[in-house]
User: Fold these one by one.
Assistant:
Number 1:
Amino acid sequence: MKKTVYQTGLEKFNRVRSSTNILYNLFFILLSLICVIPILLVLAISLTPEETISTVGYQLFPQAVSFNSYLFLWRQHTVLFRALGVSLFVTIVGTALGVLLTTSMGYVLSRPQYRLKNFLTWVVFIPMVFNGGMVSSYFVNTALLGLKNSIWALILPLLVSSFNVIVCKTFFRSTIPDEIVESAKIDGASQLTIYFRIVLPISLPVLATIALFLCFGYWNDWFQSMLYIDNAQLNSLQALLTQIMNNVDYLSKNASTLGISAVQIARDLPMEGSRMAIAVIIVLPIACAYPFFQKYFISGLTIGAVKG
Amino acid sequence: MQKQNAGGRPAHRKKFWSRDDSELTLLSLPTFIWYLLFAYLPMFGVIIAFKDFRIKGNFIQSVFKSRWVGLSNFKYLFASKDTATMLRNTLGYNIVFIFLGIAISVALAVMVNQLHSKRMGKVYQTAMFMPYFLSWIVVSVCVWAFLSYDKGIINSYLTGAGGQPVNWYMEAKYWPGLLIFINIWKGLGYGMVVYLATITGIDPSYYEAAVMDGATKWQQTRYITLPMMKTVIVIMFILSVGGIFYSNFGLFYQVPHDSNSLFNVTYTIDVMVYKSLKSSTVGMASASALFQSAMGCLTILAANAVVRRVDPDNAMI
């Protein structure tokens, strides 16, 4: 108790001047606004009536508020729900499988006595330095593994990252006492039992970290869809938004040559506000969740930055 | 283990292969197979850069059946006049991203740590972390809301102030600045978190001693905080240098909406590879993908070697 009082005393003495502090605060308020306003703007546009958008353009503080964009999406709910379903499936299955694959390898690498430890460490390490590149991965995935237009193309290629494996390995090495593993072995437990029954339950922080990395990665992924998915049935929310944005570009670039048909396509496209509404639907779960999970992210990033 | 043996202690000799080893191998097998399929097969597949690649049967058959053309794919690649633009953009942007990104994140981390109220620091940090969690497609929508020609916020402001609206997606001169801003904006929170964790981990007794000696806040930052952050800064530097031949596809393709007018300032290796892949011109794409991987590998090893020579404690490998 006494120590803390002394330390705050020192901290009080050893801090920047009040005027500097105020300047710093103003500066950070400005920066925070710059980081948050673009999202608020998208939200505002999604809540602006279409007529207002066409007369005065986008506004951060709309003159009128309407939920028409969301109602429009609701009327198109077969497409939207399908995309939401794909996104959820990919995120949940990918996260679960990814956590299993990452932590099992991490645990194996953390066992000092394991015969193949050096070999597997190299197997994990080499892809961090060298990789086959986009072209060759594309052909392996499409021509060999048959992942073109398969939902697994959105899941499998992103399952394991060597960075995550090393985070896990470092965590297991430093937090799981060898005595626990040894005594479980004396009691006749196999390594599989030890991994599932002992290691995983006492490693929840690192599981949460890895799960969050994967979860955000899958939810935010749109590039895999662009590469591997042509079938509109398999569009995730991100892919849906990508497609709508790219169609708008396509129309605006080729409007003169397309003539009347462009008008027809434009009519079938969601309105301005609805595009923004899809973006809001994508961002909302993230924006609500990340402030609470931030500390797991931070722990993962900092474990990773410390030399393994 | 080996040290013990060398010490001459007759510790129980390890069997060549124990039951433990079998079980651990079984446990690591699924991940090992994943690595074979998704990391090592593509590495083997880079030889298509030396072939006139045609799909005949599955991938492995196609690789063997395609005609060997030696370096001609690379010749075409480096004979193309767009290649210079592509390399200039990829390397130029990355160099700016690396130095500016590190400098700004470090400065902000130091500043946030000096705020009187730790709670406000957390709030700012959370707000600034937000863009990191957005996908590039959402970022491109946000950017569109600002830059759209007829409805964008910036043009409404410009016309409201009596100026002329700017056709942002057609004017190449604005984009180097814009792309640098957007990239730094998105990565700010991430960098800050990493550096802030290091700063808060510094032993407070250093600062106590400095205060006793009458060091100013600036001197404390200069002679305690920054030197203590050196290891992390160097690690982050090596990691980003390893990616210097990689460009973010979302940033350079999706955010500028693949606009032809911006070709000169947005054409990077990844954009080229994606476009060629989609138009099935595999030869040059596979050559530049292999060039990218090989150069990436070399730069990370070189950066590490330089760091090892200058400061052996901070080398990563």
Number 2:
Amino acid sequence: MKNTINSPQLMSTRDAYGQVLVEIGKEQKNIVVLNADLSQSTRTSLFAETFPERFFNAGIAEQNMMGVAAGLATTGFIPVVSTLAIFAAGRAYDQVRNTIVHSGLNVKIVATHSGITMGKDGSSHQSIEDIALMRVIPDMTVIVPADALETKKALRATIEYKGPVYIRLGRPEIPVITDEESPFVIGKADILRKGNDLSIIACGIMVFQALKAADVLVSQGIKARIINMHTIKPLDLEILFNAAKDTGAILTAEDHSIIGGLGSAVLEALACKETRPPVYRIGVRDVFGESGEPDDLIKKYGLSWKDIVKAAKEVLSLKKG
Amino acid sequence: MDMAKLIEFRVNLLKERGSILKHSAELVRGLKEAAIAVRQEIVKMTSKANSGHLGGSLSCVDILVALYFHQLNHNPQSPSWPGRDRFVLSKGHAAPVLYGTLALSGYFPKEELSTFRNINSRLQGHPDNKKTPGVEVSTGSLGQGLSVAVGMALGFKLAGKNNHVYALVGDGELDEGEIWEAAMFASHHKIVNITVLVDRNHGQNDGRTEEVMSVEPLAAKWASFGWKVFEVDGHNIKNILNVLDRSIENRSKPTVIIAQTVKGKGISFVEGNNDYHAKPLPKELVAQAIAELGKR
């Protein structure tokens, strides 16, 4: 892939979502969209303007919205449901678990404003638990695109896939770090940088931070393998076990609690491995966030590329042999 | 009536839909017999399982029998036939009444009812659409089934199809806020191809509904949410049939039927006894209950 991180194009994943949703809506008449009084914020307003007859506002009632989507799915439509991550995974957890996924229904939940980087609305609206909540549901698929371009591919792959999917998007504008040629297959992670000194496994907004950290590490003689683990469930075990074997040290990075998210998924998978490498996790350290600019929050809560560089050196020092 | 006879009876009824025999004395008699058979199966399966919700299953037997043996356009030999009407048991803990009715309608063998709540059974404690033929959606976490039914009705409306959607909710279940979210959604989006039945049996897990959480004035509540409201004696089959017909005529609003029922209906020592909300009959009372049901 091209090295675009020094002069990146900026775009939010929610903007990309709003655009691709309209494109897919044009191609497939069985796409219906539901939203809970946040159509501007989730960018589903673009779909609403283009296809008003296939757009339904549920009002501020996320639980019912999930149920209505489930019912729509039983009649052959593909419902795409959007609200903020804190409400999609938190407020409506029981409906997602017991009605949508338990029934095996083809509902696509696209949650925006995830993580601490949703910013100024503060901790009540910063979802740092949604990856955990969604991935513990049997049969659920959980995707965290790294940038705007990958969001578009992820939504297309999600619509083609038959079954419930949770896609986690963000609010801020972030660098586009993949390109048109980058592959996207659900459950298949991508290696963005080769290296054998350690592996940095990241998802979402943290993939860019990991790439930036990798450049700094290279200048200090450390070659990190950068893995974009865009699918948290099912986790790409092949790429993970190869990383463990080849590099012998792992660092995970996510804009999510260090409990229950990507880092936990990686640790669970490695737990029974005889040659388990040391694993460090970058993430929100079991605390609520606060209001602020995303960049300030990233720095204050230990999610910046500088924190990754520091943690990389620490985990390297524990590397065996 | 044995099962083969019941199935034949039901098939004949479907052929006669719309004919002069509709709501005839013969139809009502047949449905009453079917209701007795379903009640006996409920007693047997919950007792055999030594668990399950007896009271709230018995209270809505007549409603489910009226639906499955007459009102619904469906085909037990082809449970996923796209043209079928849909029924959602939102009060999923009443799974025994659904299983009894589905079995006697021909969705699966009656003998399977004895596996209810056992390991490896297709008949789970609460309805599971991936395991049981004829179950449209998993329910059990209360308040959620109505939203699904509304979504189904919206789907049919959007696709220009004539399938009608029926949902049964408990009166205790009306405590859940999601019910009223769904009620608002249906009237706001002008979804009229749905008939909701409230099993108004006045009981819930912890006691009488009016002691646990008052739901009255119920008719006024639904009406204020933009629904057309009917009330019916939920044990009078003829009246149930009539009100179901009326609910699908001249539709301009979503429709709710408040069915006044008795918890544990049909067994004198269970009727109105809330101890049997989530419990089966003790084994020694089963024969007596079956006999009493048979005499009605």
